[in-house]
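Folding Task

Wanted — backbone structure
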Amino acid sequence: MASTQSTNPERIRFAPRGSRYFDLIVAYFCVVVVLSNIVAAKPLQIGSAEIALGWIQVSPLILDGGAILFPIAYVLGDVLSEVYGFKAAKRATFAAFGASVLAVVTFWLVQKAPGAFFYENQAAYEAVLGPVAQIVLASVVAYVTGQLLNAKVLVAMKNRTAEKGLVGRLMASTLAGQMIDTFIFCAIASTAIGITTVGQFVNYFVVGVILKVSVEFLLLPVTVRVIAFLKKNEEGYWA
């Protein structure tokens, strides 16, 4: 294996999907996506004073609870694309899609099922989890589009540079994926989380993209180390 690495370092390499760590990464990927969809029902605010530049609301900054965790989905998506390839990343994307749909159906069935005679929180349940269906619809459309674009850009860049330029393709693919993901999500889910004006929409979109890309940038050293570990230890990568 070592001789293969040294004699042909420019060959495009991907580990097989049946190798040691793939299923574990996909499992965490699905959990991150499902949890992000649930907590996205709560809008978050940074700052208190309302400041506007024309029709763009600058402050307070508005985002949703999913922004706290969802960037990790793109980190894991980058890992999957870089180490296992586009088909593997697509498989993980649709696995998380299925998990999200299952969560929505479960929430809806529980909401419609008659509560026990002593249960007094039906209104709270509906208020918290009721918007999740619209949010998941937005998330599924946005996330599938964004994740597939993220994987496509990363793998296309890797096909041109092989093992070189990892940091550049990680950031470029994330920026492309996050922009389309955030825009589609905002367009569909904005009313579910209380966004009603163009200024709030622009605020939500711009802040969301900046925050998510910034989180990936801050996590870049961890992402690079995880990728390096998998490339070194995953079965078949250097074969």
